[in-house]
Amino acid sequence: MSCVPSSFTQSGVNGLEKVLKLIDNTDGTYSVSFALNHIGDTTISVVQSKHQDITGEYYNSGTISGTPDVTNTTALINFTYAHGQDITPGHPDWVAARFTGKLTPFQSGTCNITLLQDDGATLKINGVAQISNYGIGMFGSTIFSYNFNAFETYDLGIDWMEKTAGAALVLSWDCGAGSVLISSVNYASTDDIGGSPLQISVGCPDKYEQVPSTTDQCRPKCGDGFVISPEVCDDHNTNNGDGCKSDCTAMESNWACPGGSSTTKSVCTECTQGLYLNNPSNPTECVAECGDGYRVGSEACDDGNNIDSDGCSSDCNEIELAWKFLLSALLLF
């Protein structure tokens, strides 16, 4: 009989808790599962996978050029080496590395990002340098703020060098309550379980759904009755022919779907004959269009064109005077 506990839960900050479970495989071995939960509602889980988003390329020449001597995948950018300790086999010093990967935050907001480096490092987001501490003896910690937009994918790049003595590179961030980024969401532990690195699978927030064929991307859920950008409308279904397209990307021709928001659904109405969606200040309003041959609404007349001196003014606001006399004369006979 095993004396090892089967489950361990640790409460954390920002309404999160860590759950570690030990699974008896009944063959003398055990598997471990880990989950990071919002207390009362599991939204983030960890599954085993060989896929990792962070690639590390190491150069024993100390310069990032040519073919890397060592390439691997890493999950958490957090390592230190003592003086004389090998970074790559046989190379404790004069090593450079480039780390590339992607971040996809699930909320918008500003994060304070910290990079500790020894000897030096440059950090880029979407190709723009945010930290430039690249040089011998550049040990230190730098903090900068960056504003993230929900569901956008950001390219992350770090160039790092180690020339002499100890070595270190640690990337971390603080987004406050309701964190935009959580380190274990974007990068898993570097520990291996059963020979496979851990990979994060993130559950989507309320009113969102997972993008097919992905494990870390969410999008507004079309058909739930709530309009969330980039949705244009959402009439609580995924049908065509009722005003809102089945993928919620646009209103159908000559339909108006006003009233949609993150808390209310769109109510679609088809514009009747002679009314159109052509009001730029209110794209969901059905309005008359002068010159289409249909007199509706406030139009005084509509003779099918926008020409003066043919009976109806070019703006359809009045019957022209000469034609009024002619009409009156005709009515007398």
UniProtKB/TrEMBL annotation:
The segment(s) forming the PA14 domain are: 49-189
Question: What's the superkingdom here?
Answer: Eukaryota
Ranges in a coiled coil: none
Alphabetized, the UniProt keywords read: Disulfide bond, Repeat, Signal
Recorded hits in InterPro entries, A to Z, give: Myxo_disulph_rpt, PA14/GLEYA, PA14_dom
The record's annotation in Pfam families points to:
DUF4215 (PF13948), PA14 (PF07691)
Q: What is this protein called?
A: PA14 domain-containing protein
Taxonomic path: Eukaryota, Sar, Alveolata, Ciliophora, Intramacronucleata
